[in-house]
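JOB MANIFEST
job_type = single_chain_structure
chain_count = 1
residues = 259
[input]
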Amino acid sequence: MSTSQRSESIHHFFDGFVTTKTTLSEFVTKYVMSIECRFEAENHANLKSLDTEAYLRTSSPFEKQAAGIYTRSMFNKFQHELLEGAGCQPQFIEANGPCVTLRLKSFERVQIKGVTKDLQKMNTVTYNKDSAEVECTCRSFQFRGYLCRHAMWALQYCGVEKIPDKYFLNRWRKDLRYREGLEASVVREEDRKHPSSRYTILIYRLMKVAQEASSFESQFDHLLAEIPNILLNVMQSKKVTSVQIDNRNAQHNAPERTV
């Protein structure tokens, strides 16, 4: 990863949370807040990717393929990288058996410390037709988890119409997130801490219930009749929990009695 890429990534992560006047003690609190906000935003984006179809901006088969695989947040990054491929120009092409090597010049616009800069970069991409492996010297896939504009440009040049499945990491697959939510018998402790994560898990589980219950009218009627009872139990439990929390807070804030 280049210095500009690393700087851009760090500034984006802390944008809106940390300023030049932030103290060290404040930084720790702001860091936790940025992690939680990022986590919740990702969960909401994942839910959106299941409910709605991504907007395609080109007729590229790569874009259509990625839209059906990636979570919405990752697809947006992939889509941006695909579109930026228009700024790539081949400088050198060499074919040696199953291997094709391309030297690409790319015109890229980056922001460094709030300043927009137009840069020209040179990268070398190698594609092996036999193993269906593509590598780029920018190392975007290794650092970011998705193919760079240079690699996608090379694949298109070589006539590849479908990105090899190994370049879609499981972490960013919306279908895997859905299966994990259904199949996991134990909810991870870190997922219990965030309301958005709890909400996502419940949605996944309830979607499976809805799929099964909608198959037959009798099952549908049974579930429909049970929903008000489930909601009533949740509301009653929520009320009891709220009273318990208020009692604990009252005891904690009560002044100590002196003898």
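[summary]
The two ends are 66 Å apart (CA to CA).
Confidence is low (pLDDT under 50) at residues 1-11.
exit_status = 0
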